[in-house]
Write a structure and sequence with these properties.
Elements lengths: L1 H22 L1 H18 L5 H4 L2 H9 L1 H12 L4 H6 L1 H17 L1 H6 L5 H5 L1 H25 L13 H13 L6 H24 L2
Helix pairs in contact: 1-2, 4-5, 4-7, 7-10, 7-12, 10-11, 11-12
Length: 204
């Protein structure tokens, strides 16, 4: 795992060098912050994943950092709409983490991994999952209120349909292994939501 991590960070650094040439020093800041966060997630004196602090970092780095950074490289700047829109994929990424922690709550507790699901229990994690997804779906609504011409981006709300199924399983499962299907489905939901939102945003 250590070798794979070094290789992954090395390849990311090579890509970062090119992006820095294209977009300048902000990419260096993003790259350094991402490497530190990646290391601190499961390593160091206080691993984020073991202390219940992972959720805000996942939101930030899979939302504004990832989406905002990508936009910045291509457009040379950022807008309020981009930063707001970036919260949706970030929130979906957090929901993936929540399902993973809910599934593993028993084993995590036994090894001293203090995720929020371990600290506050499965009931809290279920509500956390629902709230995170609700906020993710609220983002395009807020954006369309601010920019009515982007109304086609609301087609991303179609992803609510599989979300209802996922939530039902989360509240009714008996075996934690049943959450593996929810984990996969949540990943698909993230992809579809981003795809439909992006396509709709361009159709003004």
């Amino acid at each position: 795992m250590r070798r794979a991590t070094i290789i992954a960070f090395g390849l990311a650094t090579l890509c970062g060098v090119y992006l820095t040439i294209v977009a300048g020093w902000p990419i260096v800041v993003i790259g350094i912050a991402s490497i530190i966060a990646g290391y601190a997630y499961t390593a160091g004196p206080m691993p984020l994943a073991y202390s219940g602090l992972a959720e805000p970092f996942v939101l930030i780095f899979f939302g504004p950092v990832a989406v905002g950074g990508t936009y910045f490289v291509q457009a040379g700047g950022l807008t309020d709409s981009v930063l707001l829109a970036s919260l949706s994929p970030g929130l979906f990424a957090v929901s993936l983490l929540i399902i993973n922690n809910l599934r593993d709550v028993s084993t995590d507790r036994s090894v001293g991994k203090r995720t929020l699901a371990v600290r506050f229990g499965p009931a809290f994690a279920r509500l956390q999952y629902v709230l995170t997804l609700a906020l993710a779906f609220l983002v395009p609504v807020v954006l369309v209120i601010a920019e009515p011409l982007r109304i086609w981006s609301l087609q991303s709300l179609l992803v609510i349909l599989p979300t209802i199924f996922a939530i039902r399983v989360v509240f009714t499962y008996r075996d934690p292994r049943q959450l593996n299907s929810v984990l996969g489905l949540t990943g698909v939901m993230l992809f579809l939501h981003a795809l439909l939102f992006g396509m709709g945003w361009l159709q003004q």
